[in-house]
Design brief:
Keywords: Disulfide bond, Signal. Pfam families: Thaumatin. This is Thaumatin-like protein. The chain is α+β, with helices and mostly antiparallel strands. It has a domain of 165 residues: Sandwich (Thaumatin), CATH 2.60.110. The protein is built from six helices and 14 strands. Strand 4 and strand 5 form a beta hairpin. The longest helix has 10 residues. The two termini are 30 Å apart. The N terminus is likely disordered. The structure holds 2-acetamido-2-deoxy-beta-D-glucopyranose (NAG) (4 copies). One 2-acetamido-2-deoxy-beta-D-glucopyranose binds next to loops.
């Protein structure tokens, strides 16, 4: 365990994380979530079935703000950004224009993102003790997001930064574009927009040899070559590290 992750663990004043840590006795990972957008982002976190819960499932991050989260050993799940969120003054309900999880609160409490949303997906210390991670546009796109591993060793594959630094909302194809008051706020996947097996890699198209990239997935792939652009885009979109911490940045500066 790195000094960095020890510090992160001490800082997180969550009993739960500390207790899980003691029970597991294994080293934990930290996520440093950074908002470099010039607007507030509300990250949402969803733990996979059967993995330990996190100390938070949603919070707000102002521009330039960051937050360190201690992640239990062998955690799997996803993190995404919600945008244009508001609490209704009358009903008290918290909702977001993009990435909303439907919990009516800042914490997502076990609920996932409404597409379209850029997703970072993790399976920590999975097969061969490797962390598997990716950034996916399979459920569409709403905010630029990069995942950068720190201090990890290479897996069999690649321990590299991945994500989608580009802002795709404005340049999104017309049939996929989501606008609110004529402002582009998100970009749907072709699967969500058209719902056909061909775009969703379902039914007769449910295998890698049958489901091929489309002109729509090609739009995402061209803009963001390391992110998943459709369900079977594994070859260029899945990354592995061993024993890394991760920096997850919304609106990273263009590279
Ligand atoms: C945020 O940045 C965008 C693009 O650079 C700019 O158009 C917009 O006015 C900025 N918004 C704020 C609130 O600073
Ligand atoms: C708050 O919720 C009420 C009831 O659903 C709705 O009529 C109203 O438009 C909402 N206000 C805002 C600012 O969204
Ligand atoms: C990983 O990143 C390095 C440095 O940016 C780059 O040279 C290399 O091609 C990348 N490897 C893969 C498989 O993407
Ligand atoms: C991964 O899990 C194994 C047990 O399955 C454990 O021995 C090992 O220390 C873990 N590695 C990391 C980096 O957490």
């Amino acid at each position: 365990m790195s000094k960095f992750s020890k510090m992160g663990l001490v800082k997180v004043s969550s009993f739960l994380v500390v207790i899980l840590f003691l029970i597991n006795g294994a080293s934990s990972t930290t996520f440093t979530v950074v908002n470099q957008c010039n607007y507030t982002v509300w990250p949402g976190l969803l733990s996979g079935a059967g993995t330990a819960p996190l100390s938070t499932t949603g919070f707000s991050l102002n521009p330039s703000e960051s937050r360190v989260i201690s992640i239990p050993a062998s955690w799997s799940g996803r993190i995404w950004g919600r945008t244009l969120c508001n609490q209704n003054a009358t009903t008290g309900k918290f909702t977001c224009v993009t990435g909303d999880c439907g919990s009516s609160q800042i914490e997502c409490s076990g609920a996932g993102a409404n597409p379209p949303a850029t997703l970072a997906e993790f399976t920590l210390n999975g097969s061969d003790n490797l962390d598997f991670f990716d950034v996916s546009l399979v459920d569409g796109y709403n905010v630029p997001m990069m995942v950068v591993p720190r201090g990890g060793a290479n897996g069999v594959g690649k321990c590299n930064a991945t994500g989608c630094a580009a802002d795709l909302n404005g340049v999104c194809p017309a049939q996929l574009k989501v606008t609110v008051d004529a402002v582009a706020v998100a970009c749907k996947s072709a699967c969500e927009a058209f719902g056909t097996p061909e775009y969703c890699c379902s039914g007769a198209f449910g295998t890698p040899d049958k489901c091929k990239p489309s002109e729509y997935s090609a739009f995402f792939k061209k803009a963001c070559p390391t992110a998943y652009s459709y369900a079977y885009d594994d070859g260029t979109s899945l990354f592995t590290c061993s024993g890394a911490d991760y920096i997850i940045t919304f609106c990273p500066p263009p590279r």
